[in-house]
Amino acid sequence: MSDQLLSGKRVLLGVTGGIAAYKAADLCSKLAQAGAQVDVIMTEAATRFVGPLTFSALSGRPARVDMWTAPGGDPIPHVHMAAAADLAIVAPLSANTLAKLALGLADNLLTATLLATEAPLVLAPAMESHMWSNPVTQAHAKTLRKRGAVQVGPGVGRLASSALGAGRMAEPVEILAAARGVLARSGPLAGRRVVVTAGGTQEPLDPVRYITNASSGKMGVALAEAARDLGAEVTLVHAPLAVPGPYGVERVSVRTAIEMRDAVLALAPATDILIGAAAVADFRPADPAAQKIKKTPGQAALTIELVRNPDILAEVAALRAEIGRPAVVVGFAAETQDLLANATAKLAAKRLDMIVANDVTDPGSGFGSDTNQITLLYADGRVEALPLASKGEVAERVLDAAVASMGDGGLAPG
Ligand code: PMT
After folding, report:
1. More confident site: 43 or 3
2. What are the start and end residues of each CATH 3.40.50.10300 domain in the chain?
3. 200-237 burial: b if 16+ Cβ within 10 Å, else e
4. Mean local confidence (pLDDT), 25-42
5. What is the torsion angle, in degrees rounded to the nearest 10, for the CA atoms of residue 20, residue 21, residue 22 and residue 27?
6. In the CATH scheme, what is the code of domain 188-291+299-410?
């Protein structure tokens, strides 16, 4: 899949000495697969853990170590690489290189290049926990954050010393998400707030049973990631997810339709774009049992009374009529018959700007699948059918359409 954000970008990947250098190889591979042109610079210490050849093979470009050799005849590679970079990442970042960056030292190719670049900086520190907690290291890290560097991790986990503690390098997917967040700063949704709902709500019958549906949350997570990659501040309001949540996105975890309604209405006044991808239960048990429901001998059936749940998007529409926010509201329609007629009716009833019609009987489309086939229906009557695509690609198309609908109507970035 083409990656709008990373494709064609020049990324400088600095690798310093630490056992987590092997994870940087994965990060390098992920960046290259996303279409970035990755220039790897290793410190001498990093080469004790992983060879430059590994990074050269993964990036398709020569990984560099030495300041004093001039591959390709370039006598000042640090100046040229620094100027060309759209983004610089250092992963893993050792305590030693962290200190050098804070102090502006430039005694090897990596530190010289980083001192010379104006590219935004993403740092993934990794070191033994006492080195990380040392006040000197903390002060240096603070200095770099104050200067605008984005720090990812370190996390708590098993370290090279086999002790458990803070100092473990963030996972490559997390570093990648931070890199994407930095590149998205100039995206069309920079400074805008997007709320996405995801997952299938759970409506309790008793303490251990509930009514739910087959939503995995994949579509909602993909939408949240797509909005983040356009520069938005994103909140994902989600029922239990069957997939990992997105990085770089605020998460509000809920269970029932009522909890989801409360969370969405609380966020709505500060929201530019709301996208309702959650499969919300229309009904809930009227009177959930306080204790586990028991069967009795000879009992052949059990009747459970259900009552209507609030319609979240209809309540958002009522609020929007009063306060004018959210600027754009997008719903989904999961249908098993009369797709366009039913979706059109929901578009009108919920007073939406756009509805994403989803024929959930199609193989590879709808609940649980990695792909989706949708038709966009707009309030002004436009209809746009899209081909079957990954949920990530579908999410990008939905966000592009939402951005176009927003025009100048969003909240002032602030
Ligand atoms: O999560 P996945 O496994 O990736 O699957 C994705 C999906 C199939 C769940 C998703 O693509 C989708 O179609 N979501 C909407 C599912 C749904 O319940 O549609 P609906 O036609 O019942 O609801 C219409 C719209 O009103 C939806 O935006 C829904 O979030 C919203 N709604 C529904 C009921 C309710 N009480 N309040 C609501 O706001």
Report:
1. 43
2. 188-291+299-410
3. bbbbbbeeeebbbeebbbbbbbbbbbbbbbbbbbbbbb
4. 97
5. 100
6. 3.40.50.10300
Centre of ligand 1 from the C-alpha of residue 132, in Å? 45
| Residues 89-110 pLDDT 10s | 999 999 999 999 999 999 999 9
C-beta 279 within 6 A of ligand 1: yes
Q: Would the pLDDT of 112 be above 60? A: yes
Residue among 393, 353, 354 at smallest CA distance from 373? 393
Write out pLDDT tens, residues 300-310: 999 999 999 99
What is the distance between the alpha carbons of residues 26 and 178, in angstroms, rounded to a whole number?
15
Distance between Cα 280 and ligand 1 center (Å): 6
The minimum-distance atom of ligand 1 relative to the CA of 309 is 36
| Mutational test site, ligand 1, from 215, 275, 370, 391, max ligand atoms within 8 Å of CB | 215
Give 260-287 pLDDT, tens digit per residue. 999 999 999 999 999 999 999 999 999 9
pLDDT of 397 higher than 80: yes
Q: Which helix (H) or strand (E) holds 139?
A: helix 135-146
Question: Is 26 or 410 the better-scoring residue by pLDDT?
Answer: 26
Ligand 1 test: best mutation among 280, 307, 320, most atoms within 8 Å of CB? 280
Ligand 1 centre and the CA of 305: distance in Å?
23
Asked if residue 256 has its Cβ within 6 Å of ligand 1, the reply is: no
Residue 358 annotated among the catalytic residues of the structure: no
Q: Which of 96, 108, 134, 213 is catalytic?
A: 213
Give span(s): CATH 3.40.50.1950, the chain: 10-183
As a CATH number, domain 10-183 is 3.40.50.1950
Task: Measure the N-to-C terminal CA separation of the chain; round to a whole number of Å.
Answer: 33
